[in-house]
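Long-time lurker, finally posting.

We've been working with Secreted protein (Xanthomonas citri pv. phaseoli var. fuscans) and I want a structural starting point before designing mutants. I don't trust myself to interpret raw outputs, so I'm hoping someone here can both generate the structure tokens and explain anything notable. Sequence follows.
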Amino acid sequence: MNMDMKIRLMFAAGLLALSTLTACAGGKMRSDYKKNDVQPVKIEKVGDSLQITYHMPAESLFYSPGIDFVNEGGVLRIAIRRCGINEKCDAMAKAALPPAEPWTPKVTLPYGGEKVVLVYADTEETLTP
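Top reply, 14 upvotes:
Generated this for you. Predicted structure of Secreted protein:
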């Protein structure tokens, strides 16, 4: 492999890494679920944590592993993840599925009193713990 090709490959790899970091750190948070798909969504402050429960639709090819979240300027933005059953898919905060309510995942994440915004595919909603 000649030197010009190596430089191009390293440059392309660097751009890919930078775009991935930008998407995760400062990019728009996104959810694949529409608001009506996961209702009811409930949040409860428990000490310095936030407990979130939501309805996981019964789908044969998809599931929700939990949520992603980011604190942007004192606003806690939360997005419920949706993944294919054959995908490697990690959520920042993993969902626990209570045996008595298998379609109602419960997620716990750190909470410092920020405003809470739930991001859906079709809208955003401000919630109060």
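Before you design anything, note these points.
The radius of gyration is 18 Å.
The domain at 31-127 is CATH 2.60.40 (Immunoglobulin-like).
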